[in-house]
Target: 2-alkenal reductase (NAD(P)(+))
Amino acid sequence: PFIGCPGEGSSNQGRVTALTVSGGTGLSGTIPSEIGDLPLLDNLMFFDERNLTGPIPQTFSKLTNLRVLTLNSNSLSGSIPSFLGQLKKLAQVDLSDNRFSGPVPTSLGSL
Model:
């Protein structure tokens, strides 16, 4: 469902490796959990989408190739999931300017 959308990048096999959604798209609701089914995704950016709400999907724990996760300036809520710290390739995370609650998981210290 994401193939051919603006802000999408693909490898030479036609697999989605990057997805960027930024302000002005009119997106609202939660981040689709199906994004977790994109095993080659290494760069995921949803930013400046004020009507994007809810938690970070649990399915993101399957994004083992993810290097960059940018989810800043949205209205995301809930706790920051500890599984983010278990994504071994994750090198850059920006979750600023959201409505997250609770402590930052100690597992993020290993990034």
